[in-house]
Amino acid sequence: MSFKKLHDRPFLPIATERLLLSPISMEDAEVIALLLNNHNVNKTLARVPFPYSPSDAHEFISRKTDEMKQGKD
C-alpha cells in the first residue's frame, strides 16, 4: 500500500485495557488547557506557553488538525 493511500485513511481510535488513543478534537481543549496550565506539567515541556489558556488549546488543536489533513507531522 502506498504512503498516500495510508494517509488518506481515517484515523481510527486505538484501544488497550489502559489506553484509548483517538484523534484530537476541539472537545479536548478544556482538558488540554487544564493539564498544560499546571506548572508541574508545563515545566517539563520545551515549547508550551505558561500560563496556558483555553484559547492556546483551541489554536493548537486547529493547527494540528490542519497539519494532519495536509499530511504533515
Structural class: mainly alpha
- Which strand order does the major sheet show? 1-2
Strand tally: 2
Radius of gyration: 15 Å
Stretches with pLDDT under 50, minimum 5 residues: none
Q: So what's the oligomer here?
A: single chain
Q: Rough shape? A: globular
**Annotation field: number of helices:** 4
Determine the mean pLDDT: 86
How much β-strand is present in the residues? 5-15%
Helix content bin? 40-55%
The rounded distance between the terminal residues' Cα atoms is: 20 Å
The major sheet is characterized as: 2 strands, antiparallel
Order of helices and strands: HEEHHH
Detailed description of the structure:
With 73 residues, the chain is mainly alpha-helical. It is 47% helix and 5% strand. It is built from four helices and two strands; from the N terminus they run H-E-E-H-H-H. It has a two-stranded antiparallel sheet with strand order 1-2. Strand 1 and strand 2 form a beta hairpin. The longest helix is centred in the C-terminal third of the chain and has 16 residues, at 54-69. It is globular, with a radius of gyration of 15 Å. The mean pLDDT is 86.
